[in-house]
Design brief:
With 106 residues, this protein is mainly β. Helix content is 8%, strand content 44%. The strands form 3 sheets. A 4-stranded mixed sheet has the order 1-2-9-10. A 4-stranded mixed sheet has the order 6-3-8-7, with no helix packed on it. The protein has a two-stranded antiparallel ribbon with strand order 4-5. This is Fe-S cluster assembly iron-binding protein IscA.
């Protein structure tokens, strides 16, 4: 089994090599995936969840997974996905973590 995959509650979280390098450079071994609600005027927009390095303020509101020395917290308010891939986007100072395979259907 790939050491970058974790399985729990029928969910697989894949962390790419780029994301692992990003976390190593930031000297972080935790990340969290949380729901992002954007409201423009009075219309809520559907957006992919955000991925942040570090630990959430209220870890009790998250499912916790572990892989390759990285602890992943997944917001309990998010819909259940069978598989997620955490990757990076951007370069240099604008580089950030993201979920590369989150699909929003309208």
């Amino acid at each position: 089994m790939d050491p970058n995959l974790i399985t729990s509650k029928n969910m697989i979280i894949n962390i790419t090599q780029n994301a692992l390098k990003f976390l190593q450079k930031a000297k972080k071994n935790n990340l969290y995936i949380k729901r992002l609600v954007v409201t423009q005027c009075c219309i809520p927009l559907s957006t992919p969840p955000t991925v942040r390095k570090g630990s959430p303020r209220k870890p009790e509101n998250y499912y916790q997974f572990s892989t390759d020395g990285i602890t992943v917290f997944y917001d309990r308010d998010l819909i259940h996905k069978s598989q997620l891939t955490i990757d990076t986007e951007g370069f240099g100072f604008s580089e950030r973590l993201m979920i590369s395979d989150w699909i929003i259907k309208y």
